[in-house]
Amino acid sequence: MPLVTFKYQDFSQLLGHTIPKEKLIEKLPMIGGDFSHATDEEINIEFFPNRPDLTSVEGIARASRAYFEFKPGLQTYTLTTSDVTLHVDPSVKKIRPFVTIALVKNVTMSSELIISLMGLQEKLHIGLGRNRKKVAIGVHNAEPVTPPFIYKAVDPDSIAFIPLAKDEPMTLREILKKHEKGVDYAYLLEGFDRYPLIVDVQNNVLSFPPIINGRLTEVTPHTTEIFIDVTGTDKKAINYALNIITTALAERGGKLYQTTVKDEGKNILCPDFTPLQKQVSKAFVNRILGTTFTEKEIVLYLKKMGHDAFDAGDGIIHVDVATWRSDILHEIDLVEDVAVGYSYDQFPTDLPKALTFGRTLLHQHLLETLRSVMIGVGFNEVTTFVISNKEDEFTRMGLEKRTMVQIENPIGEEYSGLRISLLPSLLKLLRENRHHSLPQQIFEVGIVVDEQAKNQYHIAGLKIDAKASFTECKSLVENVIRECGQKPLIKEKSHGAFIQGRCAAVMKKETEIGIFGEIHPKTIQAFHLEHPVIAFELITDHIL
Question: Strand pairing of 440-449 and 380-381?
Fold first, then answer.
């Protein structure tokens, strides 16, 4: 969890009110944190990662103002219109597509603000920004540069500028190889032949996102005007980051100016503090929390959490959510805020009414028995991915394609659906280990997903060896079935992945519960193997 360190005196000035230090240490963690330690001047507290708006003393002061009921409800900030614009060039769309900006004037760069701003920027990079991959923030002295600004992609050798912490100009490629930050974050631009850049109207470089800012716009103790850029791969995340940064500066007395991003023919005003409108029902709140709160009480607790709320009638509470609250995604998140606003330490505690003991399910006993049997006959257990693809499940196995649970927006063709069999996964594992000596014997007890999207446990085993035979495989399967207390029934079977005449089904009365035999040479070659393979697969549910 991010650790926030702040001075009690600085916090009190930002709050505008006085809370005894002992009460603050006792109650502040109730908002969503864990008290770490305190000294005579400082307080250290860890806040949960789902509240990036609380990773600065300014955000904590704002939340405390509502929570301690000095000023409950939604905090508002004045936005002044400016003529500052940023043009997004289409060249950057496939690299780092989203950007938002803001201008803050009348800033007094006190030592407290400098320390807080640097810490907030770094915490947002790590948490909300996923180590700059999702969000990267640039904070600049606005005075040396002239808008309009341009966000574009350029050849890495075409432009040179002096980056922060250096004295000599460097090209973008040189920065990734020689600059400390460039070396740390170069992986974010791997695979691209052009790199993102933000420049002003005179082609002065402000930022090389997500790597480093230019020295020209370095913020100093004398800076009074701050320009902020936030780039990333997630539109919602960059807007949350901008709102958190700008409102922190506003808490310090900065004057916020609304700017314009011109992107694909649209004029986007930013920052935008228009509240997100959500609803929560009284019945749902009381059902989840086990309470009997009235609409009036729920409104009060939501206002203590910095929301504007009112009773909309019929047991529905309308809620205006601040645009820096990135954790409010669903009605259940508002229920959590009701609980926090009420205070967790007020909920009654109770001991369990009955003493019970857990026990292993019968099916798990069977799985453990199967594992013991397979290990006892010299097989090594492996675990493979449930995610697979139609090429492995059907084409390479010599089967006709049929229904298979598909994944929306898969990261690649190899991981596009959920497997229907364990055998393709085990054959792929043998392929990856074909440089090792023979024989190789592996098995897996794992989940497959049938055509009705239901999970099933299967057990499958493979052996690759020059002398592997159908007789050996039949003996192995019979042994496994007997150890489970069943009598094996074998029936001839035809299957595309197995050699005709050297394949059989395992039956339980009239139900087929498994298959075994010698793998067909075409299947062996399809998985880039070179030696005979025997295999079996059983549905464990049917063995019981």
Answer: parallel
Tokens of 132: 């700059």
In whole angstroms, what is the distance from residue 519 CA to residue 480 CA? 20
pLDDT in tens, 158-195: 999 999 999 999 999 999 999 999 999 999 999 999 99
User: What is the dotted CATH code of the domain comprising 362-543?
Assistant: 3.30.930.10
* Domain boundary assignment for the chain: 3-67, 79-270, 276-345, 362-543
* CB-count exposure of residue 102 (10 Å: 0-12, 13-18, 19+): buried
**Domain boundaries 3-67, CATH class:** alpha beta
**What three-state secondary structure class fits 287?**
helix
**Structure token digits, residue 32:** 């969503």
Q: What's the angle, vertex CA 534, arms to CA 531 and CA 539, rounded to 5?
A: 145
Mention the CATH class of domain 276-345.
alpha beta
Cβ contact 498:398 at 8 Å: no
**pLDDT at residue 544 in the model:** 65
Same fold for the domain at 3-67 and the one at 276-345? yes
Neighbours of 290 (CB within 10 A): 8
- Say if CB 456 and CB 450 are below 8 A apart: yes
Q: How far apart are CA 407 and CA 427, in angstroms?
A: 22
Three-state secondary-structure class, residue 71: coil
The 10s digit of each residue's pLDDT in 196-219 is: 999 999 999 999 999 999 999 999
Query: How many Å apart are CA 101 and CA 91, to the nearest integer?
Result: 19
pTM for this prediction: 0.70
DSSP 53: G
